[in-house]
Amino acid sequence: MKRITQSDALPADVVQPRYDRSALKPRIAHIGFGAFHRAHQAVYADVLAQDHGSDWGYCEINLIGGERQIADIREQDHLFTVAEMAPGHWNCRVVGVVRQALHAAVDGMEAVLDALCGPDIAIVSITVTEKGYCHQPASGQLDREHPLIQHDLAHPGVPQSTPGVIVEALRRRRARGLAPFSVMSCDNMPENGHVTRNVVLGLARAQDPQLADWIEAKVSFPSTMVDRIVPAVTPETLAKVCELLGGIDDPAAVAGEPFRQWVIEDNFVAGRPAWEKAGAELVADVLPYEEMKLRMLNGSHSFLAYLGYLGGYAHICDCMEDADYATAARALMVKEQAPTLRVSGVDLETYADLLTERYRNNALKHRTWQIAMDGSQKLPQRLLDPIRWHLAHGSRFDHLALGVAAWMRYVGGVDEKGQTIEISDPLRDVIAARVAASAEGGERVHALLSLEAIFGRDLPDNEPFVQAVSNAYNALLSCGAREAVRRLNLRHA
Description:
Blueprint: E1 25-31, H1 35-39, H2 41-52, E2 56-62, H3 67-74, E3 80-85, E4 90-95, E5 98-103, H4 104-107, H5 109-116, E6 123-126, E7 135-136, E8 141-142, H6 147-154, H7 162-175, E9 182-185, H8 192-207, H9 209-218, E10 224-227, H10 235-244, E11 254-256, E12 261-265, E13 281-283, H11 287-310, H12 316-320, H13 323-337, H14 348-359, H15 368-372, H16 375-393, H17 398-411, H18 428-436, H19 442-449, H20 452-455, H21 463-479, H22 481-491
Parallel strand pairs: 1-2, 1-6, 2-5, 3-11, 6-9, 12-13
Antiparallel strand pairs: 3-4, 7-8, 10-12
Helix pairs in contact: 7-8, 8-9, 11-13, 11-16, 11-17, 13-14, 13-22, 16-17, 17-21, 17-22, 19-21, 21-22
């Protein structure tokens, strides 16, 4: 089947690059060429090039995994399609802002580092998921025991981790008299810029204190809040895009909901695109927006993912067809997450209604299993930090406790029908060992609470927290997820 290229004549309703792609400069190097980046940050850059004459192009980099994605866009003039999935129709946009694509395992780490030392590079952006930062989720600090960090401490010139690659690139730029770049995280973590700064400076200081001082003085780490629901690409997705492109194949295509949002801390040392012209918000402090999205959207997503999977629902939209689940998710947002937030000027009930509407989009088919991945990295910011707020204020957190208990039930590895659950988590082996060494019930809860990397030292010693999670866990064991959710709603009616 014919692959998409620059010369293709596509259907008239497909948005195609009308700008001179050769005039684009690779000013942003992006680490993590996954589905979300393609459907989010790359679209903003494409809008700027298309409608505002921007010359900010991308150099795309994958370090671990994703070899096929890099190969695919190389074979099609660095083009890819982004489809918007509305319930009644799909729209397609061919994005043309990528000028270079590299993979460390295919092209070699030297090629990656050379690209990061390009004179036009002003920003290095990142979407590698929470686990890619090699940090301790409970503290936000560098995990020096992480295998990739151990390698990079021993072999700094040939790094393997994302922090290691950034540190080595900055070392080489400093040695060559090149200007530093800004490092911008676009992953779902509170104060993601602060976490990025922690891991980069922590590794640099362990390798070369003078380099660390230079980075601290010269490099900025702006935080961002990103929002767009982008389900994993399926064969059905690619077939639909092929149909919309008039029979032209694009294996690098992605699809997401029509909604997109980007809030960016305006703190860049070497310039930035005019993202505000494409609808982004440039602010002095992103944290209130990050917390709002992480707790109300991502927190309710995790709540629905674990309880939905246990209850036999494959997709978020399936959960929302169950009135009990829809009611509980909105109550979690409004009654337990919203009070913990510091954002101002936002109607949080309206925001909850918007999220509920987005979750009902049955064109998305966002799998509960996909959202349930990497829970050890997600629980602290999505559920546990809000619980700490409620403990400090003496308020109830029954929905949050049920969400934590559902994670514990999920990582037990067997669903309510006795079927094996495929657990995908960087702490999978550690979690599995705690599960195997504990009896089902209260012993299991205490075994999982002893995971300090997730729960810290405070929560396992907090009796109200332990009791609330234990009660919720016992409810899941005794009556199952769907009935536990129904009873939760009755208690809070």
